[in-house]
Amino acid sequence: MMDSKLVLVVVLALLVVSASSKYVRPPPRKTLHFPWDPKPSSYPQQVHISLAGAKHIRITWVTSDRYSPSIVEYGTSSKNYTSTARGENTSYKYLLYRSGTIHHTVIGPLHDDTLYFYRCGREGPEFQLKTPPSQFPVTFSVAGDLGQTEWTKTTLAHIDQCKYDVHLLPGDLSYADYIQHRWDTFGELLQPLASRRPWMVTQGNHEMENIPFLKDGFLPYNSRWKMPYSESNSTSNLYYSFDVAGVHVIMLGSYADYDKYSDQYRWLKADLSKVNRRRTPWLLVLFHMPWYNSNEAHQGEGDEMMETMEPLLHAACVDIVFAGHVHAYERSKRVFNGRSDRCGAVHITIGDGGNKEGLAHEYKEPQPGWSVFREASFGHGEFKIMNSTHALWRWHRNDDDQRVTSDQVWIISLFGSGCLLKKNGELRKILVEP
Description:
- With 434 residues, the chain is of the alpha+beta class.
- It has 2 domains: 45-130, Sandwich (Immunoglobulin-like); 134-432, 4-Layer Sandwich (Purple Acid Phosphatase, chain A, domain 2).
- The chain has 7 helices and 25 strands.
- Strands 1, 15, 16, 17, 18, 19, 20, 21 and 22 form a 9-stranded mixed β-sheet that branches.
- The protein is globular.
- The chain starts with a helix and ends with a helix.
């Protein structure tokens, strides 16, 4: 049972009135420039980690030596590596650019909530990572549309203060935009954080790098950011799912086919049919293009995907939907089909990580009834799930160069709310539709 103070906080949070912040933002900042830093050809660079199934972590790094082994040594004591794992590697060509050797090695099984020390390719520095917990509480940091500006650097510094277990990124990573070495500098920028905690990502429009005669428009993204699609029975790196503690997270592809006859839609139905809300009482979904957006930017771009998939997510009683694309922040009430709905999802737009294109300043007036809070500032989110029913969401504005909490609310999950029972028949009907 919750104590009376927590009940009061929850009630007050749920009564927050709609608001548009009048915060006056500082001016834009420049794109970061990275000095040339020559390293030995076998030296591991751009190290990042991601979840790779239960009790397993995928470690990814790049070397300029194509013969460097895809081996990770690891253990629970510094420089005392008790286990070794061998993985795979790849590389790609893109016009006149040729990538380094990109290594992907899965280690495990690992203990939950445990610090590990590891070394890539048998040389270079020692890194350390912490595995997520197996039970509540668990904390996610959330920020999309990162890029490589001085605002990005501020965002990353503030995320580092978050004490998060997993980072969620709803698309638009490097803003390489065909300039392939920007993928390399992005990897170096993220390494201090992404080598220590799992980063789980999905694609945005800036990951699409289509040129004539290149079949895979997501070639750089798919080569560098390998997600656990095989573990979730998805055949695409553009959409997948995973579990953390008592949370099931679904990453959808705004730029993969999503109509009712698409592989992604069929996969989503199959994935939702396996969700056990007693084991994972929280259900989160991420994709790039927001469905609920009162900003003037990117109006209506997510409407087709919403028309197809929102009934499915509503029937499954999804708790939270995170999106990016719009370079601003916005949080909704629980909503479905454009109206407040106690069994709908809370939609949060958080495409404000620090991109080079700047902020989306203009909002539509009057503010829609479903919109609770909106502000055009750079920032990041912190989602701390305390137990099977209660979680604290905070959005921290980064524009002050300090980590300032600008929006926060307690969110009660739909687990145990009566919505699951109410929607059970509706979900079963959708799942059996051809």
